[in-house]
Design goal:
The protein is an alpha/beta fold. The protein folds into 3 domains: 53 residues, Orthogonal Bundle (3-methyladenine DNA Glycosylase II, Chain A, domain 3); 246 residues, Dihydropteroate synthase-like (TIM Barrel), CATH 3.20.20; 120 residues, Rossmann fold, CATH 3.40.50.11600. It is 40% helix and 16% strand. It has 17 helices and 17 strands. Helix 9 runs parallel beside helix 10 and helix 12 packs across helix 17. The chain is globular and about 75 Å long.
């Protein structure tokens, strides 16, 4: 981001106040701190606007693939290491369906990609895209598979290096904003023309080295195609890691615009490819496409991605409130826990094992676990009593009792005083809840 003085030099210096700031310098200072948009100045020249937008653009361009609720955003990353701040846009995972395998196999891969999702710590984790590749099969099968995929909601990647076949595929899914894979040094002119005509993002690949790849990106951008994805050469895991790191470092640290784009890794299903997939999620593939990947590897890969792309400074949380487990009645027991996702889902799973209907009060502790929140003063008798009152717990359960985690038994006296409820000290670990709940009954 340019400094306030850099911005000030490009402003009209009218000091008109129409931007809601008394002077252009004050406006420039706010703009430098990203607290106001450039559009707030009605007199900024087109040349100055273009210069400021270029200098203030993120180091890695944000590219959107697909449309609708499942559209995927990649790029726009600002860090080399997630602990410095966070990573923002998770690696897009996709299945490759190749027409060399026949139309039926392609449709099976499309269906598998569309159905591959599961819930983990309160978040839906899924395969994000389906890639259709034209290699040695019939173009008719490829186009039919594109039609099938276009009928779903997942973003698409069209993989055809023949510009004519790619053009036919684009016509089939013109409203889906697919990613076009790919322009090589031999086909770059025709692919740039196609991407520019349909305004779809384009992959650049096939370059012998990063210098040539940067030249291709510069050429595409000058031709009017800015939504680009780079495919650095990667003969093995070592070169993949090296090239992806160089691209990321050049973009983030050096602000080298020709390499300031998301990246893609297209892999198979061999052991080395599976290792590369995990490596790409960590360092620094924006897209990883796999072919015929086994479920026993895919699920851990998606869990790895979820862990890498959560903010390390913000715990995963669930919404505070009163939850039902089973079909509780006025005679069902009440328990409480914190809103740290791992704690909540662990407690919930253990309660469900008991088959006893329960009211579960989740107290807001800023996403901290029971002992951490208690030690930090986030989980107190007062905060629990406030939640009991806010969620009208006494109206839902007439047992006039609440089960508290055994680790915070010392709050029992004060909590009884504040709520008037009988305090039942539960087990120190939630794994002991099934036995306890069965003993006290519904």
């Amino acid at each position: 981001m340019p400094t306030a003085m850099d911005i000030y030099k490009l402003l009209p210096k009218k000091n008109c106040g129409e931007c809601k700031f008394p002077t252009c310098l004050a406006f420039a200072m706010q703009l430098a701190n990203q607290k106001v948009a450039l559009e707030a100045c009605p007199y900024v020249s087109p040349e100055a606007k273009a210069a400021l937008e270029e200098s203030g653009a993120p180091p890695i361009r944000l590219v959107t693939i697909g449309t609708g609720e499942l559209a995927v955003k990649i790029g726009d990353e600002t860090q080399l290491f997630r602990h410095d701040k966070t990573f923002y846009h998770p690696t897009m995972l996709g299945f490759v369906a190749d027409d060399a395998d026949g139309l039926d196999a392609m449709k099976a891969s499309i269906a598998a990609a569309q159905s591959m999702s599961f819930e983990r710590v309160g978040q839906m984790v899924r395969v994000d895209s389906v890639a259709l590749r034209h290699s040695t099969g019939r173009p008719e099968d490829f186009l039919e598979a594109v039609k099938t995929a276009a009928g779903g909601k997942l973003p698409m990647v069209l993989m055809a290096e023949d510009p004519k076949v790619m053009g036919d595929a684009v016509a089939v899914c013109a409203d889906k904003r697919p990613l076009l894979y790919r322009a090589t040094p031999q086909s770059i002119d025709s692919m740039i023309a196609l991407a520019k005509a349909c305004c779809f993002p384009l992959v650049l690949g096939g370059a012998s080295n990063l210098d040539e790849l940067a030249q291709m990106a510069d050429k595409a951008k000058k031709a009017g195609v800015s939504d680009l994805v780079l495919e650095p050469a990667a003969s093995n895991a070592s070169s993949m890691l090296e090239n992806l790191t160089i691209v990321r470092r050049a973009a983030v640290k050096k602000k080298f615009r020709p390499l300031g784009f998301p990246t893609i890794s297209v892999l198979g299903n061999s052991e080395s490819d599976l290792m590369k997939a995990a490596l790409g999620v960590m360092k620094y593939s924006s897209i990883v496409l796999l072919r015929d990947v086994p479920r026993e590897f895919l699920f851990p890969l998606m869990a790895l991605r979820q862990n890498i792309f959560t903010d390390p400074q913000v715990p995963i949380q669930v919404k505070a409130g009163l939850y039902t487990i089973g079909e509780p009645t006025e005679e069902s027991p009440v328990l409480f826990t914190t809103n740290f996702s791992l704690t909540y889902f662990t407690v919930r799973a253990d309660v469900e094992k008991s088959k006893v209907p329960v009211w579960l009060l989740v107290v807001d502790t800023d996403g901290q676990s029971v002992m951490t929140a208690f030690a930090a003063g986030k989980l107190t008798p007062e905060s629990v009593a406030k939640s009991v009152e806010t969620e009208k717990v006494k109206e839902k359960s007439k047992r006039n009792a609440i089960v508290i985690p055994g680790m915070v038994s010392r709050m029992s006296g004060k909590l009884n005083e504040l709520t008037g409820l009988k305090i039942v000290v539960g087990p120190r670990e939630s794994s002991g809840l099934p036995k306890m709940l069965k003993s006290i009954g519904p």
